[in-house]
Amino acid sequence: xxxEMQVGSDGIKTKRSSTALVAIGVPAxxxxxxxxxxxxxxxTFLTFQQGPQMLGFSLAHGGGALxxxxxxxxxxxxLVALITMAVCLWRKRxxxxxxxxxxxxxxVTLGVLSIPPAFWQCAFIGTFAKSPHAGDLMVYVAAEGDVxxxxxxxxxxxxxxxxxxxxxxAAFTAAVGGSLPVIKMxxxxxxxxxxxxxxxxxxxxxxxxxxxxxxxxxLRAYGASQIRGTPEQRQAASDVIVRRDIExxxxx
Length: 252
Prior knowledge:
Elements: H1 2-50, H2 57-60, H3 70-90, H4 97-113, H5 117-123, H6 125-128, H7 134-143, H8 147-155, H9 170-177, H10 180-188, H11 203-209, H12 213-221, H13 231-250
Helix pairs in contact: 1-3, 1-4, 3-4, 7-8, 7-9, 9-10, 9-11, 11-12
């Protein structure tokens, strides 16, 4: 009899702890899902419309900044929930359907939030290649060393000579990022290794400046010249870009 009472008491405690976990977990999942939705919107629709984004920048500088705490709280909740699950399975005690639903939602939500932005461009490259900012996007992923996505943009019609708002080509930003595989692929597509950006710098200058010796050696082997813009040219380009950024931010 005493043993049955003990089992019953343990069952009630398990149910209460499960209910408490669900009550804490649901808001954590909800707010993390809101953040994930916002980031997904920035990584897809907003990126297509406006080009590369500083993800979460506008959200972090407003009332939505509190949302960035949600994933950390959810990770902590998930840790406690997994420990609880392990204990209950070991003791052969059941957990509520709401508990399992909340646990699954937490895993899915955190999974979506952890997907890198480049994934969406690669997955929907045909759509992103039609963006008015396709050149900026290709140049950006070249700097990240994403050979597959850069190749995807080229295969969907984005010119290898496309530039970003600073007048830099994919070859230039790949040199800055030290991505030799991207450089090699761009060379095979006929990239101009001596194309300078608005500051007057060439890809070889960028590679030397950033200390990427392997990229520098490859560029020299393919006849690239080290071209550096004059102080006047750099200042003029900087002034133009700053004014353009101010105007663009006013329009948002």
